Amino acid sequence: MKKIKTLILCTGNSCRSQVNTMKKARCMTDMFFLQVTLFLIGATIIDAQEKYFNTFAADGSMYIGVDYYPEHWPEERWEYDIQLMNQAGFNVVRLAEFSWAKLEPREGEFDFAWLDKVMSLFAKYHINVILGTPTAVMPAWCARKYPETLAMKADGTRIVWGGRKNNCFSNGTYRLLSERITRALAERYKDAPNLVGWQTDNEFGGTDCRCHQCQNEFQDWLRCKYFTLDELNRAWGTHFWGLTFFTWGEIPIPDDREGSTWAISNPSASLDWMRFTSWLNVRFQDDQIRILRALCPDKFITHNFMGLYQNMDYYALAKNLDVVSWDNYPTFGDAEQMQIPYSSSFAADVMRGLKRQNFWIMEQTAGPHGWATFGRNIRPGELEKICFQQLAHGADAQIWFRWRTCTVGREQYWHGLLGHDGKPLRRYQEAVQTAKDYRKLEKALAGTTVKSDIAFIYDYDSMWALRIQPGYPGNAYQTAISRYYNACFRTGVNADMIPPGADFSQYKIIFAPDLYILPDEVAIRLDKFVRDGGILVADCRFGVKDETGLAHERTLPGLLAETLGIRIEEYESLPAKLNYVVAGELGTFSAIQYADWVMADNAKIMVQYTQPWHMTSFAAVTKNLYGKGQGWYIGTVFEKTNFYDQLVARLLEAAHIRPLVVPPVGVEVSFREGVGKRLLFIINHTDEHKVVTIPSGKHELLSDTVTTDQIDLDQYGVVVIKL
Ligand code: GLA
Ligand code: ZN
After folding, report:
1. Domain 63-207+274-445 carries which CATH code?
2. Distance, CA 273 to ligand 2 centroid (Å)?
3. Are 364 and 398 in contact (CB under 8 A)?
C-alpha cells in the first residue's frame, strides 16, 4: 500500500498540468510517447490495488440502508429521519452525490458545515456513510465561467446548462474541477469514523460530446492504438469510397445517428468511437479513484452501474473499483417483464460477472417511478421479493432509492420508501421487514456466491457492432442472449455472464449468442473448450467480424467450421410476414427474422427447414460431436419460446446438469454456495399462490422450520433453504 501511495503522490496534479501542456503541443512526436507512458503509469498505480474486498461490514453485518438527500429537507427534520432509519435496522446511507453546488457554492470555496452535521448525526445513530463524488451535475458557476465544460451537440452548439450529466469528458478544466472537489471531500472526511466508502460520480453513461477537444482526443487515442496511419487505414478499411486519411488531424467524429443525411458511417470508425467514449468515462473515474485511494486507502470505492446499460464497457469501468454496485428498477417494462423480471436476473448476473465477485444494490426500487408520468406501485410483499431476487444472484448489500419522495425538481414522482408526507407507512414497514429477514440470513450468506456450470459470453464489442449494423431488422444483442437465458431461468439453473477473455474451462456449457465480433484468439479458445469436453452454442451472425469490425474473409463459421461441423455459404434476413417452417427431433417450429443456409458437413441435423422448398436441404439447428464435447449451431430465430426450453433441456442432459428444483411458471430458483454450504432461493414473482416440490428435511431460514417435500409460496413469497 505504501508503495502505491508514493506513486500516486508523484502523479497527481503536476502530471495533469503536464497533460494540459501536452494538449497544447499536440502532434509533436514526444507528446505521443509521454501520453503512452502516463497512461501506463496511471494503469499501474490503480492496478496495484489488489486488496481483497469483503462486501459485508467489518462486524459481519450486511449493509442495508437508503440513498438520502439531506439537502432536500429542512435541518430540523434530519434527526427524525435518521431515527426512523435506525429503527428500521439500517446501517448505511449514501449521501452527497449531486451536491456539488452546495459543497462548493463559489469556485474554490467550500462549505462542509451542513455535511459535517449530517455525518455526525449519522454517527450518533451508528449509521455508516458512503459519499458520492458530486461530479454528475456541474454547478451553474462552472457553466457560466467555463462554457467549454458543457458537452457540444452535433449541430456545434453547447448543451444548455440545467440538467445533469452534461459535461464534456475531454475538457481539462472540468477534469481539474472534478479532481479538486473530490480531493477536498476526501481530505475533509477521510477520518470520519462512519465513512466506509465512496461512490464515484453517478451512473457513467458514455458521452456524445462532439467538441474539437473530443475530436482531438479521439485522434490521439487512435494514434496510441494504431501507431501508424497506414494501420488505421487498414483497420478501418478506408480504401472504401476512397475515404483514406492522410493525416491524423483529418479523422472526424463518426456520425451514425439515425436519419442523419450526411452520416459518416464507417462501422469500424463507429466501433472505435464507442470504445473511445467509454474510455473517456473510465479515465474520468480513474482520476477520482487515484485521489480517493491516496487519501482514503482503507475505504472502498464503488460506482453505481445500470445493469444492462449499453453505452459503456462495464468490464473496464469495474476494473479499478473494489466492488460493483447497481441501480435496479425492475418494474419498468412490458406486462410480462412486470410478472417475471428476467432482465433483473440477467442484469444481476452481468453485474456479478464484471469483477467475478458479489455486488451491491446501490439504488433499489422503493415505489412507483418516473419523471413526467409514473408506473405502477409496488404491491404488498413485492418490495421484499425484488430485493431477494438480487440477493439470490449475489447482491450483498441493499440500499433503497430513495428515503423520502422529493417535493421538488425533476424526480417528484420517483417515489421513495416514504411519500411526500414523510410518514413511515407501508413501503417503509415492508423495508423494515426485509431488513429483519436479511439479518436472519447474514451468517448463512457470509462467504457465499453464485457458482454456475453455464456461462454466456457477454461482449460489449459485439453489442456495439450490432447496434451499428444489426444485420437483420430486429436484431439486438441482449435480446438474442435473453432467448437462451430466459430458458435457463425457467429451467431453474444459474448462469454466469463472462467476457470473451475469460477462462472457459470451468464451464460445462457456453452460450455465445450473436457473438458477432470474433477475434481469432477467442475462436481458438472456444474450439479448445469443445475439444476438451465443453458444449458450445453458437447462433446467427456468429463470428462474422474481426476485432476492428472488418468482415472475416473465411466462409462462416470461419475458424469454428470443424468445431461446429457446418458451412454457411449464404444467409438472409426474413421480412416481417415471411416465416419459414422447420421440424426435427426437437419438434416443429416457425422460424422468423433470419435464416442461415446451414450445410451440415459432419454435424447432425437436429432441426431442418421443411418450407419453403428451396430451404429443405438446409439445417436450422445442428449438433456436432467434436473431440470430447459438442458444438451446437442455431441458424435462425424461433418464434416461440418453447424451442429454447427444449434446447436447454437437451443441453443440460448432455452436460449431466440436473436442476434440483423444477420451478413452476413465474417462480425463480437460484443458488448461492460457499465452503461447506449451499443455499437454495425460491422466489415467487407472481401474485398467485404457488406450490413447489423441494428437498425435504432441510432448514428454511426465514421461517426457521424444517421442509417437507413441498413448499407453499404466497404471492411474492420467498424462501431460503439450507441444503
Ligand atoms: C438513477 C440515478 C438516481 C435517480 C434515479 C431515478 O438511478 O442514479 O440519481 O435519478 O435514477 O431517476
Ligand atoms: Zn467534448
Report:
1. 3.20.20.80
2. 13
3. yes
Calculate how far, in angstroms, residue 41's C-alpha sits from the geometric centre of ligand 2.
24
Strands 705-706, 699-700: pairing is: antiparallel
Q: What is the pTM of this model?
A: 0.93
pLDDT in tens, 137-158: 999 999 999 999 999 998 999 9
CA dihedral 590, 592, 594, 599 (to 10 degrees): 10
- How much is the pLDDT for 335? 57
Sign of CA dihedral 703, 705, 711, 712: negative
Which position among 203, 382, 430, 668 bears the catalytic label? 203
- Give me 619's grid cell: 439445417
Q: For residue 186, what are the CA distances in angstroms to 103, 125, 135?
A: 12, 22, 14
Task: Provide the residue ranges of all domains of the chain, joining segments of one domain with +.
Answer: 63-207+274-445, 454-654, 667-722
Q: Is 363 a catalytic site residue?
A: yes
Residue of 164, 203, 304 with the most ligand 1 atoms within 8 Å of its CB, for mutation:
203
pLDDT band at 423; cut points 50, 70, 90: very high
667-722: which CATH topology?
Answer: Immunoglobulin-like (2.60.40)
Of all protein residues, the one whose alpha carbon is nearest to atom 10 of ligand 1 is: 411
The whole-angstrom separation of Cα 589 and Cα 581 is 6
Of all ligands present, the nearest one to the C-alpha of 201 is: 1
Q: What is the pLDDT of residues 642-700, one digit of tens each?
A: 999 999 999 999 999 999 999 999 999 999 999 999 999 999 999 899 999 999 999 99
The residue annotated as part of the active site, out of 97, 179, 217, 363, is: 363
- CA 433 / ligand 1 centre spacing (Å): 24
Q: What is the pLDDT of residue 369?
A: 92
Q: Within 13 Å, how many C-alpha atoms sit on residue 514's CB side?
A: 27
Pick the CATH number of 454-654 from 3.40.50.880, 3.20.20.140, 3.90.550.10, 3.30.450.40: 3.40.50.880
- Give pLDDT, residue 26: 40
Cβ contacts of 686 within 8 Å, gap of 6 or more: 339, 340, 665, 666, 667, 715, 716
